[in-house]
Amino acid sequence: MWTRLQARLRATRVGGLPLILLPLLLANPARAEDLRAYTERFPPFNYQQEGQQASGISYELLMLIANKARLRIKTEFLPWPRAVSKNSADANSILFTTVRTAPRENSYLWVGPVDPCDIALIRLKSRNDIQLGTLADAHQYKVGVPAYGADIEILQRNNFPAEQLEKIPSSGSITRMLYAGRFDLVSGILLSHAYEAKTAGLNPTEMTVAYTLQPGLGCYFAFNPKVRADFYQRFLHAYQALVQDGTLSRLQAKYLR
Q: What does pTM read for this prediction?
């Protein structure tokens, strides 16, 4: 009798679990992430050193927002063009940290800003010979620019001479090249270049803004416009709460020390 009972019990189990529990498991599967967040190496906003945990103002803020909004967010570091492409194909996803510009305005739903993110032409303070009153004044100088991003979009839109632009894949390399005298100017956000200089053992206070290409429309979390409305609203409200309680200001101060 005991042998027959054991056989009946085995027949009512799948994968070691009683069949009576299967409807409950199927009705409540392990929840996958709610949102995917695609990003690049862009210190001090988002970056990940090899073998270390991801960090940065935007990354830490994203994790705090996820916790406050009770959202599961999976982050993936990619080259920027691939991050843009994956965000475009993934309705429930975020692209960060994204500079808000007029041509991009209708392509995303925005949450931010994380920082004002003035985009500028930057020189070394020792180069007092470089004095720019207009963008046209910079046409005579060699400018290092990121290969992708808002900087080059703005310069090309304003018909900056292509032969004066040298596209570099890595923002860290551009900063070091400026100090080495490879370029007269570099484009970008002063805060980001200052962080790269400090990381490379260079004095970040040796840089200064020569000309502002675009005053701070800001750096944002950019959502695919087809994102679920409730996910977007929960994220937005959590961001607003963290701004209100001073969390964002404390994060900015942490990375500016």
A: 0.76
